[in-house]
Specification:
262 residues, mainly alpha, globular
Length: 262
C-alpha cells in the first residue's frame, strides 16, 4: 500500500508545473508597466526610422500588451517544465577562451542584470511597434511559441547546466536566480534566441544596427551575470538563425520576410 502511495506522489510531483518566486514587488512592477508602456509605444511608433503601416489604436496597444504579458508567462511554462522533466542527467556546459575574453573586458558584473532582465523584456514590448494588425500579432506569437517548443525539446533530450553562478547582493539578480534555477536550459540560451528573434522583427522598424545591438548586449549580459557561457550564446545564435530562416520564413513568408520595411 505504501509503495502505491509513494508511486502516486511521485507521479503527481512529476506533472506539477514548476513555478518560480513571483513576488508582490514584481506584480506591482508588472501592473505599472502595463499601465505606462503601451502609451509610450503608441506615441513612438511613428518616430522610428521605418514607421509601420498600421491602423491599431491606443486601446489596441493596451489589449496587445496585456495579451503579450500573459502569453509570455504561459509559454515560459514550457521552459520551467524542463527544469524537472528531462530524459537524462544534465551535463555542465564548458567554458571557452571566449568566456575569458568577455570576463577580461567586462568582468563578472551583476549590474548587467538590468540588461539581462529589464532591457530584454522591454524589447519584447517594443516589438508591438512592428505589429500591423491582430493577425500579424498572432503569427508573431505563434513563431515565438514554435521557437520555445523547439528549445524545450532540446533541453528535454539533452539537459544541461552551467557552473555554479556568482553569489550576488543585487536584488534583481538574486530574484532571477531564485526563479531561474540552474537545473537545465543553459544551452541554447533562450535569452539569446529571443533576442535574435527580436532582431529579425525590429530590423525593418528601428534599423539594422540598432536592432543588432539587442542580441549583442543581451549576449554580453548573459556571460557577465554568469547565467550562461559562450557556448550557450553561440548555439543560441545558430538555433535562431536556422529556425527563423528555414522554418518561420518558409511557413509564413508574408510575416517573416527576409527584408521588408513597413
Amino acid at each position: 500500500m505504501n509503495q502505491i502511495r509513494d508511486g502516486f506522489n511521485l507521479l503527481r510531483s512529476s506533472i506539477q508545473p514548476h513555478h518560480g518566486v513571483f513576488t508582490i514587488d514584481l506584480v506591482i512592477l508588472l501592473i505599472v508597466t502595463i499601465s505606462v508602456i503601451p502609451y509610450f509605444f503608441y506615441n513612438v511608433r511613428n518616430m522610428v526610422p521605418y514607421p509601420v503601416k498600421s491602423e491599431l489604436k491606443l486601446t489596441d496597444y493596451y489589449i496587445i500588451t496585456v495579451l503579450m504579458v500573459y502569453l509570455i508567462i504561459g509559454v515560459y511554462q514550457q521552459y520551467f517544465w524542463t527544469k524537472k522533466n528531462k530524459l537524462r542527467k544534465e551535463f555542465v556546459m564548458p567554458k571557452t577562451s571566449i568566456d575569458g575574453l568577455f570576463h577580461t573586458c567586462f568582468g563578472v558584473n551583476d549590474n548587467w542584470t538590468y540588461i539581462y532582465n529589464f532591457i530584454y523584456y522591454f524589447v519584447f514590448g517594443f516589438i508591438i511597434v512592428s505589429v500591423r494588425d491582430y493577425k500579424h500579432f498572432a503569427v508573431l506569437v505563434m513563431g515565438a511559441i514554435a521557437m520555445m517548443t523547439g528549445l524545450s525539446t532540446i533541453w528535454y533530450l539533452f539537459p544541461n547546466i552551467v557552473e555554479p553562478r556568482i553569489k550576488t547582493t543585487n536584488y534583481f539578480l538574486k530574484l532571477t536566480q531564485a526563479i531561474d534555477t540552474n537545473h537545465n536550459n543553459a544551452c541554447p540560451s533562450a535569452h539569446v534566441v529571443f533576442a535574435m528573434y527580436s532582431f529579425y522583427l525590429l530590423r525593418n522598424v528601428i534599423g539594422y544596427f540598432p536592432a543588432a545591438l539587442v542580441p549583442l548586449l543581451i549576449s554580453i549580459s548573459c556571460i557577465t551575470t554568469t547565467q550562461h557561457v559562450s557556448t550557450d550564446i553561440i548555439f543560441g545564435i545558430i538555433y535562431a538563425i536556422l529556425f527563423y530562416n528555414f522554418v518561420l520564413v518558409r511557413l509564413a513568408p508574408k510575416y517573416f520576410s527576409t527584408f521588408q520595411k513597413g
